[in-house]
Predict the 3D structure of the following.
Amino acid sequence: MGVRFPLGAHMEKDNLILVNAFACNSIILKGLIDYLNNFFKVYYVDLPGFTRKETKIQKITINSYTKYLEDKISELNLKHYIIGGISFGFVIASNANLDKKCKGVFAFEPYTNSKSIILNKITIKFLILLIEAVSTFQAQNTIWRNKLFWKFLSKIHYPPKKAIPIVREEIDPETFFEIGKIILKNVKRIKFHSVPYVVLVNKYDGIVSPDYTVDLFKKNVKKLLINELDSVHYPDNLSERYFEKIFPPKKVEEAIRFFRQ
């Protein structure tokens, strides 16, 4: 890649704690992690049920995941850090009780609640009923093994085709469906902190409304930097080179300086 830390090798990298998106994990997002490691010291938190190494938790809720993240932050025992949430992970990062060690929040394509989703109400209600039926009949594992289910997901590009084998092998089916239902039903107001926010929004997102997101952050955050990306919410290309292209070093440098003000 040849990317160097933009503020100079003599300056210490900031710690960045990243929280995963829905249907995603550190394996799928290795390209993003590798790219950001050029600028930050990245600590990626895979939430329970999203990789085999992090087994699912009994009660799958936003609060239980928030508690898990708070424990992870405590275990890291960093002198200072920036917390970053990717899509659904932003809700978990935002709800966490952040101490004075937190110097800022990095919101990557942030999902905030069901109002931010670009889906009509009928589609959302249908998907909720479908997921609830799956849960009622405890058919998560059966559907997970069904080829038609994965063909359906590949058509809507969530996740992209290249990531599907990893999702199938690594992500717990019950976690997948329960988090999906939470995302579709969650109407709670997001929690904002009194720290600088850097928000990355995709102009062609297709899943989360960039206009809704920008408006929400402008109304609730005093120290705010918004960067528009020329991408979709979940791209087919997940390589390090791709992330360098859509979020170039100059933009990353701008974010770092903003956090350090």
Remarks:
- The chain has one domain: 14-260.
- The mean pLDDT is 92.
- The two ends are 28 Å apart (CA to CA).
